[in-house]
Amino acid sequence: MSTHEKETFLQAYNWVESWQTLPWAHDEPTLFLAHVCSRKKPGTALDIGCGAGTDSVFLAKQGWEVTSLDFIPKALEYTVQRASAAGVSVTPVEADITAWEPPQQYDLVLDHGLLHNLDVVRYPAYRDSVLKALAVTGEFVLLHWHPLFAGQDQGEVGPTRSSREQIKAFFAPDLQERFFAREEFEDLPATVGRGMTQAYYLFRPNLAEAKPAELIAQITTALTDHAIDADAALGADKLPTDVSDELLACIVGPGRLGITHRVPAAEDARAVLTAWAERHGLDAGAVALLIHLLASGQQGNICTEEPKCSECAVKFCKRLRYR
Ligand SMILES: C[S@@+](CC[C@H](N)C(=O)[O-])C[C@H]1O[C@@H](n2cnc3c(N)ncnc32)[C@H](O)[C@@H]1O
Ligand code: SF4
């Protein structure tokens, strides 16, 4: 498949005499990637849009089993040569990420600079590929340009600047942002808009979305641990009355259960919970009751305004960020 993006990148690779003269060349991984890797045991990694391979080679040297994907053969040649010079190996894949079927799932998926060069018509296909490629316990590291200031011009050749909200909404509800960092660049060529904020994201699969029944089972266990018989309570037709819509909105939001990627307006919290339950074929009334029991000061007395996380069995909760 040829696209206008591919033609543009082909010209760039044909024009340069060495990988060092590529406009995006960097010979060290970003501090962000190095930091993410420093706290992970090496596993399988997929570097999408690997370019000249700096990140692929870095990961392989750290012990990762790396698949390096790019749609430009010259990029893969540079990557394989540099890996071999460093005494490591990577698996090169020549493919367009938007038309690629991942043969397996990876513990780490990395995109340093591909998505922000993609035509928006291919965003849904890109998103599908990333979701298929990422293991449920995996992490997705994305470097994407962000505007330096509101309304910033992106120059003749971009890349596209997207706000943090746009990126989070794009991957929601399947992926949830777990970390965000930014670095400002103010002196770039006019063709790429003179400046930008480089945004670094760490996403993980949202377990409320990937394993909803397990989340409900964890809530039930938390209630049982607090002597609430959830089965008996499910016979009740009334919800506890001391759970405010504000608290419910906080519980379904990204800081706790992660049913949504942003805290909804208080008046929308119940509808958000119902939509989530129905999307996953769960009984919306039963789900609402369990969460109200968890949140009620007179019932479970667990996930209240001052949550008792140390006594709670909800392992998927995002409040316990490093669990
Ligand atoms: C800006 S470069 C970044 C390269 C590298 N990740 C780095 O950090 O130096 C983007 C790379 O993505 C590749 N690319 C762009 N769109 C792609 C697509 N749809 N499928 C596969 N590769 C793509 C380009 O060929 C290029 O090598
Ligand atoms: S871990 Fe804390 S915030 Fe999360 S559901 Fe349990 S009590 Fe609520």
Describe the global form: elongated
Query: Which residues sit in consecutive blocks of at least 5 with pLDDT less than 50?
Result: none
Q: How far do the termini sit from each other?
A: 42 Å
* CATH architecture descriptor of the largest domain: 3-Layer(aba) Sandwich
Query: What series of H and E elements makes up the topology?
Result: HHEHEHEEHEHEEHHHHHH
Q: Helical percent range?
A: 25-40%
Rg, please? 23 Å
Strand tally is 7
Fraction in beta strands: 15-25%
Oligomer: single chain
Name the CATH class of the largest domain: Alpha Beta
Bound molecules: S-adenosylmethionine, iron/sulfur cluster
What structural class is derived from the secondary structure elements? alpha/beta
Query: What fold name stands as the CATH topology of the largest domain?
Result: Rossmann fold
Specify the CATH homologous superfamily of the largest domain.
Vaccinia Virus protein VP39
The biggest beta sheet, please? 7 strands, mixed
Instruction: Report the average pLDDT across residues.
Output: 93
Instruction: Work out the count of structural domains.
Output: 2
Strand order of the largest sheet: 3-2-1-4-5-7-6
Count of DSSP H/I helices = 12
Report on the structure:
The protein is an alpha/beta fold. The chain folds into 2 domains: 4-205, 3-Layer(aba) Sandwich (Rossmann fold); 209-311. It is built from 12 helices and 7 strands. Helix 8 packs across helix 12 and helix 10 (245-252) packs across helix 11. The longest helix is centred in the last third of the chain and has 14 residues, at 212-225. The mean pLDDT is 93. The structure holds S-adenosylmethionine and iron/sulfur cluster (SF4). S-adenosylmethionine binds next to helix 1, helix 3 and strand 2.
